[in-house]
Design goal:
CATH topology of the largest domain: Rossmann fold
CATH class of the largest domain: Alpha Beta
Shape: globular
Mean pLDDT: 93
CATH superfamily of the largest domain: Formyl transferase, N-terminal domain
Catalytic activity: N(1)-(5-phospho-beta-D-ribosyl)glycinamide + (6R)-10-formyltetrahydrofolate = N(2)-formyl-N(1)-(5-phospho-beta-D-ribosyl)glycinamide + (6S)-5,6,7,8-tetrahydrofolate + H(+)
Oligomer: single chain
Function: Catalyzes the transfer of a formyl group from 10-formyltetrahydrofolate to 5-phospho-ribosyl-glycinamide (GAR), producing 5-phospho-ribosyl-N-formylglycinamide (FGAR) and tetrahydrofolate.
Protein name: Phosphoribosylglycinamide formyltransferase
Number of domains: 2
Pathway: Purine metabolism; IMP biosynthesis via de novo pathway; N(2)-formyl-N(1)-(5-phospho-D-ribosyl)glycinamide from N(1)-(5-phospho-D-ribosyl)glycinamide (10-formyl THF route): step 1/1
Largest sheet: 8 strands, mixed
Keywords: Purine biosynthesis, Transferase
């Protein structure tokens, strides 16, 4: 009997370019995740229309309508539970969660960050990388923990920092890798081939041999 697909919600705040890559990947019959909900804290987020066009349920919860962070998080949690969500995927979701929300979804929520963590946490990562003079920069898929951008790493993709790069050119090249890496990382988790155990990501035996390259892409 085939394994049931993991029920996934994607959270966005804007155009959702990574969301688009995940939705496209999930159209494959053998993809182990089913995207059943896209939610945003901004009703004007452009990605909501794309998700609706793909036949995916959407929810807009304007964070400005809630008196505090905990109230917003409670409303979002209720939507996720009502949809039977098993895994939450952050794709440009520009809100910091309360510790209680993160703990409730511990081991069941992932994010993609535009740097090779643990380097350059927070915002303006491309400017940080250029200022530091690194020769490699990239993106990281990681589990979400209460500390910002500090969760166990699932997968990373690297690109060289080229002479003459500015933040925009570097960001554009990394975004290409984000769109490749995130669907693959989600597939590993949703398919049971990567899991969180004692604060570390444990991979199935075949992953390192068959997919080692995708875990550390470099162009």
């Amino acid at each position: 009997m085939p394994r049931a697909k993991t029920r996934v919600a994607i959270l966005i705040s804007g155009r959702g370019s990574n969301m688009v890559s995940l939705i496209e990947a999930a159209t494959a019959p053998d993809y182990p995740a089913e995207i059943v909900l896209v939610a945003s804290n901004r009703p004007e987020a452009g990605g909501l229309a794309h998700a609706e066009g793909a036949g995916i349920a959407t929810r807009a919860l304007d964070h400005r309508a809630y008196p505090d962070r905990a109230s917003f998080d409670a409303a979002l949690n209720a939507e996720l539970e009502a949809a039977g969500i098993e895994l939450v995927v952050l794709a440009g979701f520009m809100r910091i969660f309360s510790a209680g929300f993160v703990e409730a979804w511990a081991g069941r929520m992932i994010n993609i960050h535009p740097s090779l963590l643990p380097l350059f946490r927070g915002v303006h990562t491309h400017e940080q990388a250029l200022a530091a003079g690194v020769r490699l920069h990239g993106c990281t898929v990681h589990y979400v923990v209460p500390e910002l951008d500090a969760g166990p790493i699932v997968a990373q993709a690297a690109v060289p920092v080229l002479p003459g790069d500015d933040a925009d050119s570097l960001a554009a090249r990394i975004l290409v890798q984000e769109h490749r890496l995130y669907p693959r990382a989600l597939a590993l988790i949703a398919g049971g081939r990567a899991r969180l155990e004692d604060g570390r990501v444990i991979f199935a035996e075949d992953v390192a041999a068959a997919e080692g390259a995708l875990l550390s892409l470099s162009e």
